[in-house]
Every structure is written in C-alpha cells, then in structure tokens.
Amino acid sequence: MEKPEKLIVDGKRLDGRAPDELRPLKIQAGVLKRADGSAYVELGKNKVLAAVYGPREMHPRHHQQPDTAVLRCRYNMAPFSVEERKRPGPDRRSVEISKVAREALEPVVFLELYPRSAIDIFIEILQADAGTRTTGITAASVALADAGVPMRDLVSAVAVGKVDDTIVLDLTKEEDQWGTTDMPIALMPRKKLITLLQMDGHFTHEEFKRALALAFNGCEQIYEAQKRALREKYSVKPEEE
Ligand code: UDP
C-alpha cells in the first residue's frame, strides 16, 4: 500500500475508527489441550496465541533459584504472519520483545510461591498488524490465569500513538508505519501500575498525558474482555453439572 496523503479524514481513520476507538477484540481462554494454560486473542487483524507451562521444576537445574520461580518468555513471529516472509527463528527484535513481555508480566505473578520452578510463556504471532507485543502480553496474562498461576491481577496492554497530529488508540500497521509516534503500554489495571512503556517517536508533555489517558481507557476495555473470557471458560453451565 502507498502512503495516503492523509491518515485521518474528517476525524475518521483509514479503517473507519474514531481516534479513541479500539479495533474489534476477541479473547478466548483455554484453547490448547496440552498446555497448562492458553489463550487466543484477535485484535483487528492481529492473531496471537499464548501458551503457559508450569510452574514446574526448572531445567537446567543450575538456573533454579532457591527462593523464587523464574518466568521465561518467548515471543515468536510465524514466517507467514507478515507481508514480507519473516525468516524463522529469533532475531534482535524478538529477543527484545521476549524480554519486555517477561518484565511486563513478572510483577503480577506470585513467583515466590514456587521456589526452584520455572514458568514458561510462549507467545506465537500468527498474523501481525502492529501492536503484536501488547496483544501478546494481553494473551499471555489470560494464559497464566488459565494455567491457575496465582496472580495479583491480569496485565492488559495496548499501543497509543500520534498520527497526522492526532493522538490515537491502538495503531494499525499503516498508522505505525506512517505515524510519528508509537507508544506500547502494559498495565495492571486494578492498581493502575504500568509494567511496560516504550516509545518510538516523541510527544509533548500534553500529548503524553492525553496518550496515557487513552491507553488507560483502552486497557480498561481489554481488561473487561480478558475477565469475560476467563469467566466463560470457568463458569459451569447448569446442564454440565
Ligand atoms: N512487522 C513486519 N515484519 C517484521 C516485524 C514487524 O512486517 O519482521 C510488522 C508487523 O505487522 C508488526 C509491525 O510491523 O506488528 C510493528 O512492529 P513493531 O516492531 O512496532 O512491534 P509491534 O507493534 O508488533 O509490537
């Protein structure tokens, strides 16, 4: 696609959304039989799967911590997830995203309950359209809860940014590519604690405050959908009792 002259026309974005609108969101908990916990998330054209294994004994043993569990995270993009085939295997970007995703999730998990253990999180990007690190974190926190890992809260994540001088929620690939700023954020919604904040581009102080408010609002909507997905999985319907 060629860069259009304007990314926002009459207050509407290329996909018809208002600046403060999230893409259509679908979350399903417990989609994989062999993982201890799992979740599938669609956010617009993003399709992301997260699987959790553990807590289980840490191998290799010399990585065991005597007083805590260790969270490990692998973010991986499928070769067919992007327009230009992604070369399989880790690269600088996926190593960075794996690290920031782990750091975004660590604060919610009661790791101290499982000394010498490992909790493994796999984030698989099946289809990408910008915001895959945040969608991956959203999926991973549902997968952790689905695995029964004791948690202080969920983590909800979304990107905000600036496109044609307008602050927008949840950027698409085109907006990420041609916009001026992209700021992914992850949040523990109950206490409003930020566990990930990255920024590509720049904001004035005022714009930053507005973008943050928009991200908090987006995370709140994602949080509700995450809880709904977990309730759907775990509510026992009368006919199944
Ligand atoms: N992307 C791509 N090829 C790559 C990496 C990324 O086409 O090798 C696209 C993909 O759609 C991704 C977007 O660029 O979602 C933005 O990537 P970024 O690094 O900003 O991370 P994200 O927004 O996905 O968290």
Task: Give an overview of the whole structure.
With 241 residues, this protein is an alpha+beta fold. The protein has a single domain, classed as 2-Layer Sandwich (Ribosomal Protein S5, domain 2), CATH 3.30.230. It has four helices and eleven strands; from the N terminus they run E-E-E-E-E-E-H-E-H-E-E-H-E-E-H. A five-stranded mixed beta sheet has the order 3-4-5-7-6. Strands 9-8-10-11 form a four-stranded antiparallel beta sheet, with helices on both faces. Strand 8 and strand 9 form a beta hairpin. The radius of gyration is 18 Å and the shape is globular.
Total helices: the number is 4
Oligomer type = single chain
The small-molecule ligands in this entry are: uridine-5'-diphosphate
- Element order: H for helix, E for strand: EEEEEEHEHEEHEEH
Overall number of strands = 11
Q: How is the main sheet built?
A: 5 strands, mixed
| Structural class by helix and strand composition | alpha+beta
Number of domains: 1
Net shape:
globular
CA gyration radius, whole angstroms:
18 Å
The percent range for helix content is 25-40%
User: Strand content of the residues, in percent?
Assistant: 25-35%
* CATH class division: Alpha Beta
* Level-2 CATH architecture: 2-Layer Sandwich
Uncertain residue segments:
none
Write down the overall mean pLDDT: 97
